[in-house]
Design goal:
The chain is mostly helical. It contains 2 helices and no strands.
């Protein structure tokens, strides 16, 4: 989860802007909890999957 669309219940501002201490604390907590694939867009994942399938198809034809 990213804090791009989250709205702070304390100041009603976007959490990503960090207007109040609550926003800044939650933004820091979310950044610590992010996994390495959280920053990868779905389009990038689709491209990586297509590339892996292409490599498998080429490898299968090369060794068949």
């Amino acid at each position: 989860m990213t804090c791009d669309r989250l709205v702070c219940a304390n100041c009603a501002g976007p959490v990503s802007e960090g207007r109040c201490p609550v926003c800044r604390a939650n933004r820091a907590r979310l950044q610590q909890q992010q996994n390495p694939f959280a920053a990868v867009s779905p389009a990038t994942l689709v491209v990586l999957l297509a590339a892996m399938i292409a490599v498998l198809v080429v490898a299968r034809h090369a060794f068949a």
